[in-house]
Design brief:
The protein is an alpha+beta fold. It contains seven helices and six strands. It is elongated.
Length: about 230
């Protein structure tokens, strides 16, 4: 994730919404292109033009399948998260289709250069997500657990003080089998920099497992604290 995107759109919550709608628009555009496009113009390398066309159809089918899985929530979160990473290789195949099929865009024209820049930025962004950035990790211990109907209230004692602003969230993982994925949760207290409290609703596979298995003295890793939801009044 690039933090400047959150800054431009007004916060991570709005970035998620924009990401979803851009995805829907891309899928509709892809579908319209697939059913209406025909070979036109000269290919950059004529010997690869047929492969370029075939690769586009292959990528389109798999991208539509992944989007349906994502939109309809057909698989558990931990499987979906891994499947979503395949969007990167499929985009690379789609980019190959864009540049090596018989296209109306003349090589090295302004449109061609813009497509190249955007495609390169997208591929770089995907590669960036593959690096598990383990910087500024904070370890904490669970010091209180209160199970409620449909939620769990937990309190963490951090080994390093954290500066938390109202409305921010923290990405957490529990050092426990089946709970070691990162998930973001809103922090509900900001008056003690060494303690964090969360009320986590049972809304999915991970949170249900968290509710039933989290115990006092469990180690919780805080991967990052983010979010800018609080208006800054003069």
């Amino acid at each position: 994730r690039f933090s400047w995107v959150d800054f431009l759109v007004g916060g991570p919550d709005k970035a998620y919404v924009m990401h979803r709608w851009l995805g829907y628009i891309a899928v509709v555009s892809l579908s319209l292109h697939w059913v209406s496009a025909k070979a036109a113009g000269a290919a950059l390398m004529p010997s690869l033009s047929h492969l370029g066309e075939e690769s586009g159809e292959f990528a389109a089918i798999l991208i539509l399948i992944l989007v349906l899985i994502s939109a309809l929530k057909l698989v558990p979160y931990h499987l979906w998260k891994k499947s979503h990473l395949f969007m990167g290789p499929l985009f690379i195949i789609a980019a190959f289709h864009s540049f090596f099929s018989a296209s109306p865009f003349v090589a090295y024209s302004l449109t061609w250069v813009i497509m190249l820049v955007l495609s390169s930025l997208a591929i770089f962004s995907w590669i960036k997500t593959l690096y598990n950035q383990k910087i500024s990790l904070v370890s904490s211990k669970v010091v209180a657990v209160k199970r409620m109907s449909g939620a769990v209230d937990i309190e963490l004692q951090c080994n390093t003080p954290l500066m938390i602003k109202a409305g921010q969230f923290a990405s957490l993982s529990v050092n426990k089998n089946g709970l070691n994925e990162q998930h973001p949760f809103s922090v509900i207290n900001t008056n003690d920099s060494s303690k964090l409290r969360f009320i986590i609703a049972n809304v999915g596979d991970y949170t249900q497992k968290l509710n039933s298995e989290i115990q006092i003295a469990d180690e919780v890793i805080i991967h990052k604290v983010a979010g800018k939801f609080t208006p800054e009044y003069k």
